[in-house]
Each structure stands twice: as structure tokens, then as C-alpha cells.
Amino acid sequence: MITEFEDFCTWVFVVVDDIWEQIAPFFKRPGPAPVCSDSELIAMALIGECRGWHMETELLSCWKEYRAMFHHIPSQSRFNRRRRNLMQAFNLIRQGILRSLDLSMDRQCIIESLPTPVVQFHLVPGSTGDWRAFGATFGKVVTRKADYFWLSLASSDHSGWSDPRL
Amino acid sequence: MTPANATDLEAGFEMLSEHTDLEVIGDKASISAAKAAELWEQNRIRLRTLSRSNQKTQPSPVYQHIHHTIRQLIETVNGQLSDQFAIEKNYAHTFWGLCTRLISKLTNLCVVAQRRYHTDRSKKKPPQSFDESLSFSAKPQTLLSL
Lengths: 166, 146
Description:
A: three-stranded antiparallel beta sheet; B: 60% helix
């Protein structure tokens, strides 16, 4: 039974590291091995978001209080760059976890879309991002009763019908 | 990820075209007899939706109730993504940065689901009787028979 934050961190790191061992050959890069390993960085990102540390600066400053678990905390710019480079690793870990759940073998699923605002409405004119190239547009989301500059996240849920807690 | 100007039906159809042999529950945005027939013929995917209120044929109240109950699952997932993982807050400056954040949040959701799944499974008592085990699987069977 996990009741302490430290136990949760250990559990997540073990889950990530087990899968990382299998996928690490796909993410080899030249140069010396980093002090903060890739699996540690992924675990830090995942645990941080579970805690509600959604901004990277906040996440890294909070992790400094737990140096006993993760000894080396990378700088924000390096953390961000490595995290973006490991995007496919996050996805492979997600798929690995899903595969370990027998519910993922169910042939039933639910489809739904979730509008994802990418830039606040009033900031769009000055935005330097490449959002328009990927189809972001202005629009009114009726269910949210708000105007957004948004993309849409289409999702399907394979988590099975019989257990609503998932 | 789909562009904002693509309809739910187009996005869903494109996503489902990559799969086969599924039974899919969609909302009213997914209503299209032509697309449903195409998915069934090409991918053996059964797309189940409710009818609009002004359509002549309406499903039975039992079917509607089960449909709403099942749809509630993904509303819960979306709620978790919005409230717990703040998926609607975007701090990324580029599209790929946004993708990284979204994938990270979806991975997180799977981690939490796995944790909860194993915890709840160990607590869950096995069905004590045949009737109880029947009632446990009643929803999918009922839906399939409808």
C-alpha cells in the first residue's frame, strides 16, 4: 500500500525504468551519459504532473526539496529540451503500461474529442508559435461557452466498460 | 490531434479507420449512417450512437440509459485530464512542445490508472454467486443484445 509520496516516487520510477530498459536502445545519443538519467527525468516529469506542478520552473524548484530521491536536478532549459527529445519515449512508456492492463484488450471503446486551447484569445495576434500551420483556428466551444484559439484532441477510451473507476 | 475546423465525425472516422473489429460508442456528433456503414464494411467496426431528438427512430429507454452510463466513463477521463492534469492550460510555445506536454499527461493518466487498477483489483471481492457474476457483466451483454 502506497501512502507516502516517497513510496509513490519509487513506484513510478520502477515502472518507468522497467520499460525504459527495453526502449533505451532507440534513444541512444553520442557523448557521455548525463548525470540525471533519462528514466529519472521521465519519472520526475510524470510525478511532478501528478502533484500538480504543471509549470517546469515550479516543478524543478519543488524537486529541489527532494534531493534525496533525485540527486541531480537539471536546469529548466535543459530539462525542457531533453523532455521534448524524449516525447516518443513517453509515448512508448504509455503504450507499455496500457499493454500491461488486460482491459486494453477489450474490443469496446468510446470516442470523444476534447478542444485544447493553445493560445489565449487576446494573445493570438502577437503569438510567435507555429499553431496555424497545424490547423489551430479561432472558434467558439459551445459546451465551454468560451472563445478559443484551439486544436482538438481526439481520444478513444479502451479502458473497458465494467469498471467505471478507470 | 486534429485541426480545430475538422468535425468530430471526420476526426473520429480517420482515427477509427486505423483499427478493426471494434465496438465504438460515440456521441451525437458521430451520427452518420453512411460513415457507420462504411466503418462496418471496411473495418468491422460497429459505431453505436443515440438518435437526435428529431429523428423518427428512437432507441429504447434501456438502450439510452446504458449508452449514457457508458459515455460517462470518458467524461470522467476528460474530467481527470482537465481538473487533475490541467490539460487545458497550455504553457508550450510550439506545437511540438504542446504534443510533448499532452503525451506526458496521457502517460500520467495511464500510470495512475494502472496504480488504481492493481489496487482496486486486489480489494475487489470475487462474485459470490452465479447471479452476482451475471449482474457484474450485465451492461456489455445487454448492450450487445440490443
